[in-house]
Amino acid sequence: MSEKKIMVSGIKPSGKITLGNYIGALKNWVDNQDEFENYYFIADLHSVTVRQEPAKLRKQTLDSLALYLACGLDPEKNIIFIQSHVTAHPELSWVLSNMTYMGELNRMTQFKDKSKKNEENLNAGLFTYPVLMAADILLYQADYVPVGEDQKQHLELTRDLASRFNNRYSDTFKVPEPYIPKAGARIMSLQEPTSKMGKSDDNENGVIYITDTPEEIRRKFKRAVTDSVGIVQYNDEQPGIKNLLTIYSVLTKRPIEDIVKDYEGKGYGDFKTDVGEVVIEALNPIREKYEALISDKKYLQSIYQSGAEKAEKIARKTLRKVYKKSGFVPRF
Ligand code: TYM
Questions:
Q1: pTM for this structure?
Q2: Which CATH superfamily is domain 204-291 in?
Q3: CATH 3.40.50.620 domain span(s) along the chain
Q4: Ligand 1 pocket, CB under 6 A
Q5: Which CATH class is domain 6-184+297-326?
Q6: Residue identifier of the C-alpha nearest atom 37 of ligand 1
Q7: Tens of pLDDT, residues 90-120
């Protein structure tokens, strides 16, 4: 048995993976892969809470897998799978949904935001979304869940559900902790620096996708919204510059103060160009690896098949305990 602590996380294939996803989550998965026992999946079941075009969803799911690998996740060190391949996830979600209160789900800020954007498709899945997320995590007895800031509230619910089940029956689930990066947990749109950079933002100029070409990245950073202060410094009154400084600092591992010093007496033009170049340097090798991987469907298939097989074993073990404690008669 491995003594390593367990990490679990996922990304929805509801669009192309962004620089926000990379800095807030994926990069930390890669940086920590040696230290933990890791389960990373593509959250396709979560993505259909918003209407998806089937062919596009299929493509985006495989793209996400190729990108996980291209970012440096090693299939020898991580169990990588597609969420819908391990049916224990929706099964546990059902059990947990019977101990989740409507009031708890009503309070979720992501639900409130999404329901405003999806008034014409305010479906039950969007409401129970965090319960499935709790199941994703609890099935693997996760210690840590590496995510961006926006998932913190869902993690709190996950912890509450784990404790509630443990108290009602007996110790079954580990109570997980969020693992949120100190810097970069909330990367903002380049066009609207007071809103989060998101996969399905209407204004694509504000979003950097990991697969963007150098030309696209250069163009988007040139157009990045700044302010009229004219000084490169890190403060809340200058959200655009603050966001660019965060991106620069996380990707180069240089302290913000040092970067600020470099730009004393210089205008925003140089700074924006340089941030663009830093991002190109970080993303270009990933895009090149992605392009090679995405054409090798057989290889990708072998990864997700063996990943699901391994994940299934662990997940079933937890689910069996849950069913037994709930009073369901075992089939075997
Ligand atoms: P999703 O697909 O919206 O985002 C994937 C991950 O990226 C982080 N993230 C960001 N971090 C920094 N800045 C941003 N602008 C930014 N945008 C997104 C998110 O916090 C997340 O970590 N519900 C999850 C997927 C999920 C999941 C899970 C995660 C399903 N089951 C179980 C952890 C554990 C989601 O919608 O992520």
A1: 0.97
A2: Tyrosyl-Transfer RNA Synthetase (1.10.240.10)
A3: 6-184+297-326
A4: 8-12, 20-21, 23-25, 43, 46, 133, 136-137, 145, 147-148, 150-151, 185-187, 196-197
A5: alpha beta
A6: 11
A7: 999 999 999 999 999 999 999 999 888 888 8
